Amino acid sequence: MVKKLLIMEKALELFAKQGFEATSVQQITDYCGISKGAFYLSFKSKEELILELIDHFMKQFISDIDYSVKNTNKDDLLSAFFYATYQSFQEHSNFAKILIQEQAHSLSEEFLLRMRDYDHKLDKAILTMIERVYGPKIETIKYDLIYSIKGFVNNYSGLILFNNLPVDVDLLVRSLVEKTNILAQHMTIPFVSPEISTLLLRSKDEKVSKEQLIELLEQKLNELDESIEKESLSLLKQQLLEPSFSPAIVKGLLENIRNHPHCKWISYLLRDFFEI
């Protein structure tokens, strides 16, 4: 596991400098100081390595955004969303940079499918946010507002990442909140119709099954040492098998695991399953 993480960290540095396509497995192994054989014990190919990097970053990002959207007071929700977004970009700036670069010319169908799935999850989180913040008054323009917000995030992220600009995050967040409020209050000509939005948002809208969650929980339980996170995972598995805890207890157990780097995604999936 340690060697796999080392390869991911070092490969990410190279990808940030050169891009996915221009970086070879040989360059990665030379940079890591390992043999090709050691690389292939961890990853079947460079493409598999790239997909694992995507999963690692996007699962952390989506989980943090989803939690913020569902647990922040609605008066502070827009600010919390933009803060969480840019904090994540700053923490993972190398990956954020190459992700923005590479989405325009994806390496494979699998890359596209992964990104569409995460993009869909982000759409759902933003939709939940704007419905909480603005209520029914934005019903006719809410789907356009989703893509406007995503446009703000992508464009300002690119501006910051590729120009090495000093960032006053407070000012940036206030500016984006103001822009979003202006659009929500004054937009009158929607482009994305309910019919189009249904097509865009319905794909891959299936919850993970209880059986799949139990399998994931068992994997995590085997990975973790004794800790409050492991104990909480065990109790959540028990809740799936034989429900007995109140929603408040389930929410507390999810709080115990949500910040652990190896538990963020399972906490996201469980929040969705328990509708918390």
From TrEMBL:
Residues 1-61 form the HTH tetR-type domain. Residues 200-234 form a coiled coil. Residues 24-43 bind DNA. Gene3D superfamilies: Homeodomain-like, Tetracycline Repressor, domain 2. Keywords: Coiled coil, DNA-binding, Repressor. SUPFAM superfamilies: Homeodomain-like (SSF46689), YwmB-like (SSF143842). GO terms for molecular function: DNA binding. PROSITE patterns: HTH_TETR_2. The keyword RNA-binding does not apply. This is TetR/AcrR family transcriptional regulator. It comes from Bacillus yapensis.
